[in-house]
Specification:
Blueprint lengths: L1 H6 L5 E5 L6 H9 L6 E3 L3 E2 L14 E2 L2 H9 L3 E8 L2 E6 H9 L3 E5 L2 H10 L4 E7 L3 H11 L4 H15 L7 E4 L3 H16 L2
Parallel strand pairs: 1-7, 1-8, 2-7, 3-4, 8-9
Antiparallel strand pairs: 3-6, 5-6
Length: about 200
């Protein structure tokens, strides 16, 4: 058994992408609690400042913009993106290797372009899931209910969501999060089927 484990060191990659407010983080958190899926969360790296109680190595790997750029030059990222000027997000290759070394499958809560980049790099090993809100209006209501952002920021996210929704057909599967309980059951089944395939 041990020999087989070392031969098959690489686990599966489960990518969840969606416009902000679609519920992907809630779904990912739920799946992390399902033991038989054997999932471990991929912690992203970012050059943005810590917010509130965020901790390095738990919420994100916090790097300076200079450190981030040096890691880009040394090809340390599986995928990365400059969201705003000098505001980078990315997935370190060492993070995926760390999780695979634990004998686990990697789950990502990641933006649309990052999710599609991972799918392109590992087409056979990756299940790319797009979480879709029932509508743009429903999305706007959810973002307002959070009470974490200004009206301008919400409008920016809604505008970005329209572009992101257009990429949904590029994903392996789409889950419409109209009813959270149903979305959780569907996500569990799709991820479980993929891991066991």
């Amino acid at each position: 058994m041990l020999e087989e484990k070392s031969k098959n060191k690489q686990g599966k990659l489960i990518v969840f992408s969606a416009p902000s407010g679609s519920g992907k983080t809630t779904i990912v958190r739920h799946l992390l609690g399902v033991d038989n899926l054997n999932l471990e969360f991929s912690i992203s790296a970012t050059s943005r400042e810590k917010r509130g109680e965020e901790a390095h190595g738990k919420d994100y790997y916090f790097l300076s913009a200079k450190e981030f750029k040096n890691k880009i030059k040394s090809d340390a990222f599986l995928e990365w993106e400059e969201v705003y000027r000098d505001n980078f997000y990315g997935t370190l290759k060492t993070e995926v290797e760390r999780i695979w070394a634990l004998g686990k499958n990697v789950i990502f809560d990641i933006d649309v372009s990052g999710g599609l980049r991972i799918k392109r790099k590992y087409p056979e090993q990756t299940l790319a899931v797009f979480v879709k809100p029932p509508s743009i209006d429903a999305l706007k209501i959810r973002l307002k209910k959070r009470k974490t952002e200004s009206e301008d920021k919400i409008n920016m996210r809604v505008a970005k969501a329209s572009a992101e929704l257009a990429t949904a057909p590029l994903f392996d599967t789409i889950i419409v999060n109209d009813n959270l309980d149903e979305a959780l059951i569907e996500a569990e089944k799709k991820v479980g089927d993929f891991i066991n395939s």
